[in-house]
Amino acid sequence: MASAFEYAPAPESRSVVDIAPSYGLFIDGEFTEAAEGKVFKTVSPSSEEVLSEVARAGAADVDRAVKAARKAFEKWSALPGSERAKYLFRIARIIQERSRELAVLETLDNGKPIKETRDADLPLVAAHFFYYA
């Protein structure tokens, strides 16, 4: 028999996030596999459940990332401060908009209480981007 009441998922439940089975390295604007093909599992300390597999960077990957960052810095540093501020401000707003998801992910990944990630960590992350914007 169906319940007369339908309930939404708890605001801090895992159902509010989508975790991909694997993540690559974000280098030069795209996700790529590690050069050596190595991965590690990220495990929830509260349940010992494997959350995802993440590419494990090696020296070649770090070199590639540094090269990409240097290339991006040329364009970034040429932008006027007011334009850079728009990007930083937008990052802060996206963090605020998705803070519920990010807090749940952080709690699943490291076992911190949701109250700490939701009420302290994420607001501080957004505040830092707003400050530098």
TrEMBL record:
What Gene3D superfamilies does the entry give? Aldehyde Dehydrogenase, Chain A, domain 1
Q: What one GO molecular function would you report for this record?
A: oxidoreductase activity
Ranges annotated as spanning the membrane? none
Q: Where is the Aldehyde dehydrogenase domain?
A: 32-133
Q: Does the keyword RNA-binding apply?
A: no
The answer to whether UniProt assigns keyword Oxidoreductase to this entry is: yes
Keywords of the record: Oxidoreductase
Q: Which domain of life is it from?
A: Bacteria
Its protein name is Aldehyde dehydrogenase family protein
| Source organism of the structure | Streptomyces sp. SID7499
